[in-house]
Amino acid sequence: MNAPAPETRPPRHDEAAHTLLAFAAEVAADTGVVARLVPHPTERTWVRLAGPDGSEAWLIGWPPGTTTGWHDHGGSCGALVVVRGELTEHALAMPAPLTSGQAVRVDNPGITQRCVPPGHGLAFGPDHVHAMANESPGTPAVSVHAYHPRLPWMRKYLLTGDRLVVSHIEYAEEWTNDR
């Protein structure tokens, strides 16, 4: 009796994240879509877009110094591509707490950092926890983000010293109105 052949395809969430990354790159290259974003000098702004196969996408404007804070994507896969400016991702390299008030200890090097320049992007699976920021002192940024399935909620986290704690949960209704 022969053993089954090893799985050669990436896990389903990897396929979804890479499909989202390709879609985000396509949208980022569409100057007509990017022009729909009305920037604000001090607050992030966004426009919700339809994504492929029931996913959702967001065109986001990032004034200098703005950040998302630590968050996850409610079990959705995601991808982003930077259109203009540069974003920095701070990502948790370990399992995150899942319930409000629950905490995990974050040891160095429990957090990774990477810069995402214009024309580049990243894709991630359903358990990814990160904070995105425009750390530039004077240059606005624009990016395209896509998620599958649509975001049901996002857990928001606080990082205090070496403790990452779920602070609250934001539901889709709280951010679906375009700004």
Q: Give the biggest beta sheet.
A: 5 strands, antiparallel
From the N-terminal CA to the C-terminal CA, the straight-line distance is 61 Å
Helix content: 10-25%
Poorly predicted regions are 1-11
Give the SSE order as H and E letters: HHEEEEEEEEEEEE
Strand order of the largest sheet: 1-2-10-4-8
Please report which band the strand proportion falls in: under 5%, 5-15%, 15-25%, 25-35%, 35-45% or over 45%.
Answer: 35-45%
Mean pLDDT: 85
Rg of Cα set:
17 Å
Number of helices: 2
E-strand count? 12
Shape: globular
How does the helix and strand content classify structurally?
mainly beta
Give a quick rundown of the structure.
The protein is mostly beta strands. The protein has helices spanning 12-28, 31-34, and strands spanning 45-50, 56-62, 70-71, 77-84, 87-92, 103-105, 111-116, 121-124, 130-133, 141-148, 153-160, 163-171. It has two helices and twelve strands, in the order H-H-E-E-E-E-E-E-E-E-E-E-E-E.
